[in-house]
Write a structure and sequence with these properties.
Layout: H1 2-16, H2 18-22, H3 25-28, H4 37-57, H5 130-146, H6 156-185, H7 188-191, H8 196-199, E1 208-209, E2 215-217, E3 244-246, E4 249-251, H9 266-289, H10 296-350, H11 369-378
Antiparallel strand pairs: 1-2, 3-4
Helix pairs in contact: 10-11
């Protein structure tokens, strides 16, 4: 409303010509003074209105709950939310409270951070000389602990020169130490690395190797190899040890020798081995034909042994029959004792509880097999449908 009134007054002043005198250069530099008191009052009123209008436009003076307040990390509609950059749950962590994502969301995708539009909140911090400055600050702290009065902000030039000289001395010390060790113990040939073409060679063939260097999985089928030496021929042999087997013995196929570290004799060794084997087979046959006849004493002793064996068999059979009879007698006694026990239990159960004698379930000895068999035979099973026919 005040603005509309002010606009109307300005139009009236323009129409009357007063505004032209106010905007004149003499009036602006204060050379021309207002003629009347009414003009002074009018100018003061205009200044007050301008002041009030400026107060209304100043932000933060009047708080309205319906008015939207700007936030420092407010994003526009065209921006992509940080948590929508990479939908993988194992990617960079997004803090919803501070709306910060410090790591690069495209780290696992293989993209270069310079190519993507957003590479995390920490991407800008670690560019340029940030890392080198952190290293110099760390060196300043360590040097101050050792007694050197250096400071990154107080004297940066001195610190930079000291840090450069320290790095040069450190590299020289490492090189001297390495040379002294190699001169004393040797081993320079092991430090010579193969060319970069072999180290960084790339191929599209997927092959898996074991700890010992053998192929586990790949395009070609892995050949099962022994960890022992293979195809090693020694002492002029043309075949390996274990190529020949006979009667539970391993040997060489080239000479039929069963001695591992023997020299090869070739075909002559085969003939000798075959003749020895034939002689060994013929000797027991000759012994069978040349067996001596048995004497009468030996024949009598053999007959006595056979009689004793037959007697032992008969006694064992009689003993087994006697044991069966004993078991049957014991079982009969156990059955009679079980019947007597059941009758005693039946009589006690018919008595009144107050007139029953003292009875203990405790038994000082373990029941025998016959007693257990009698218990099983006399036990009544009410769930058995044929239990009612036992007494008939």
């Amino acid at each position: 409303a005040k603005r509309t009134l002010k606009a109307q007054k300005l139009q009236e002043e323009l129409a009357s010509g007063k505004l032209g005198r106010v905007n004149s250069p003499r009036h602006q530099w204060g050379e021309e003074e207002p003629n009347s008191q009414t003009e002074r009052d009018h100018n003061s009123e205009d200044e007050d209105e301008d002041k009030y209008a400026d107060d209304i436009d100043m932000p933060g003076q009047n708080f309205d709950s319906k008015r939207r307040i700007t936030v420092r990390n407010l994003r526009i509609r065209e921006d992509i939310a940080k948590y929508l950059r990479n939908l993988d749950p194992n990617s960079a962590y997004y803090d919803p409270k501070t709306r910060a994502m410090r790591e690069n969301p495209y780290a696992n995708t293989g993209k270069n951070p310079d190519e993507v539009g957003y590479a995390g909140d920490n991407f800008v911090r670690y560019t340029g000389d940030t890392i080198s400055m952190a290293q110099t600050q760390l060196f300043a702290w360590e040097a101050y602990d050792k007694g050197s009065e250096v400071h990154l902000q107080a004297d940066p030039t001195k610190l930079e020169l000291l840090y450069k000289s320290f790095k040069v001395k450190k590299e020289d010390f490492k090189a001297e130490q390495k040379e002294s060790i190699l001169e004393k113990y040797g081993g320079q040939e092991h430090l010579d690395a193969p060319p970069a073409e072999l180290l960084l060679a790339q191929t599209e063939d997927y092959v898996e190797y074991s700890r010992h260097g053998t192929v586990i999985k790949g395009q070609e089928k892995a050949i099962a190899c022994s960890k022992y030496e293979e195809d090693v021929k020694i002492n002029n042999h043309t075949c390996i040890w274990g190529s020949y087997w006979k009667e539970g013995k391993w040997g060489y196929k080239c000479c039929h020798s069963f001695v591992k570290y023997s020299y090869c004799t070739g075909e002559a060794g085969k003939e000798i081995a075959n003749t020895e084997a034939s002689l060994l087979e013929e000797e027991p046959r000759e012994e069978e034909h040349m067996t001596k006849p048995k004497t009468l004493m030996e024949i009598h002793q053999e007959k006595q042994k056979e009689k004793k064996k037959k007697q032992r068999k008969k006694s064992s059979n009689s003993d087994s029959e006697g044991e069966e009879k004993k078991k049957q007698e014991k079982l009969k006694k156990a059955l009679n004792a079980e019947e007597a026990r059941l009758l005693h239990v039946k009589e006690i159960m018919q008595l009144d509880e107050r007139k029953r004698p003292y009875n203990s379930i405790y038994e000082p000895r373990e029941p025998t097999e016959e007693e257990m068999e009698a218990y099983r035979m006399k036990r009544q099973r009410p769930d058995d449908p044929m239990a009612s026919f036992l007494g008939q």
